[in-house]
Write a structure and sequence with these properties.
The chain is α/β, with parallel strands linked by helices and 300 residues long. It has two domains: 184 residues, NAD(P)-binding Rossmann-like Domain (Rossmann fold); 104 residues, UDP-galactose 4-epimerase, domain 1, CATH 3.90.25.10. The protein is built from twelve helices and twelve strands. The chain has a seven-stranded parallel β-sheet, sandwiched between helices. A three-stranded mixed β-sheet has the order 7-9-11. The longest helix has 19 residues. The two termini are 34 Å apart.
């Protein structure tokens, strides 16, 4: 298949490009810069210039492909309304192109905010509905397109999609540990996260492109629950710094923007996903990744 990938140069997107290419697919990646285009073409993919605000570019990328993987997001923490607006417009544009075609549209979402008090399961609908909601309600928008002849699927990612070179949440925790000389957890450290290695996540995306039935909710979750204290202890070992509890009132000063997420339990199951697509995570777990040195090097 010819697969159009937005976010092709990102942390998950770059691994997805590699996975699709290694499985014999042709990949067209959305890129904003010459340097990103050069990296893509060196891999054997095609570079398609544009961004989330260039709707005509998105329209053409989707129209000329057999499937779309939508991973890009502005992630503007200072202006989430703008991120949500751009996400909604981009998803609407590409879904309109794919309507009636039966082609695959795989879109990313997070696990946070779906349910509270228990792990999220694939049958749990996202409460984000409509353009004013989180991520512009793009998960429900995509799933609703199944009745319009789009083979749409949502991949919900664990809060830690980890691996060497990661620039996400665990990297921010490692940076806080270096800055303060201690690896911290909040309160008693009982808040928990799910986790998945980026190579396992990329393989799930490829399986979704190839096999997922229309209207599927899929969970990129290899490890259901790791306590934030265990994560902090692993970072302490890897960085050779003490491990300590950080009072909730001091968490924002210590961790910065990641404090809110590190204080929040975000866990999920992936039983339905594994049974549906035969997905079996095989890469190292998060604690193993940390203690083996994946986060000891500062990410540029």
């Amino acid at each position: 298949m010819r697969v159009f990938v937005t976010g092709a140069s990102g942390w998950i997107g770059s691994a997805t490009v590699d996975e699709l290419l290694s499985s014999g697919h042709e990949v067209v990646g959305l890129v904003r810069s010459d340097s990103s285009a050069a990296v893509l073409t060196a891999k054997g993919a095609l570079a398609h210039r544009g961004d989330l605000d260039d709707l005509e570019s998105l329209r053409k990328g989707a129209a000329d492909s057999d499937a779309v993987v939508h991973l890009a997001n502005k992630h503007d923490w200072g202006n989430p309304t703008e991120s949500d607006r751009a996400e909604r417009a981009a998803a609407e544009t590409m879904l309109d192109v794919l309507t009636g075609s039966g082609r695959a549209f795989v879109i990313a979402n997070a696990l946070s905010g779906i349910v509270e008090g228990r792990p999220v399961v694939e049958t749990d609908p996202s409460p984000a509905v409509g353009s004013e909601s989180d991520r512009g309600g793009s998960e429900n928008l995509a799933l609703d397109a199944a009745v319009r002849g789009v083979r749409s699927a949502v991949v919900r990612f664990a809060p830690s999609v980890h691996g060497r070179g990661d620039w996400g949440f665990v990297t921010w925790l490692a940076e806080a540990a270096r800055k303060h000389g201690v690896s911290g957890y909040i309160g008693d450290g009982s808040a928990s996260w799910s986790a998945v290695h980026r190579t396992d996540a990329a393989r799930l995306i490829r399986l979704a492109v190839e096999q997922a039935p229309a209207g599927s909710r899929l969970h990129a979750v290899a490890e259901e629950s790791l306590s934030t204290k265990a994560i902090a202890e692993a970072l302490g070992t890897a960085l050779a710094v003490p491990v300590t509890s950080i009072a909730p009132a001091d968490a924002a000063d210590h961790f910065g923007i990641v404090a809110h997420f590190f204080a929040t339990t975000m866990t999920a199951k992936s039983t339905i996903t594994r049974d549906l697509l035969g997905w079996k995570p095989t890469s190292p777990g998060l604690i193993e990744d940390i203690t083996s040195g994946a986060y000891t090097t500062v990410v540029a």
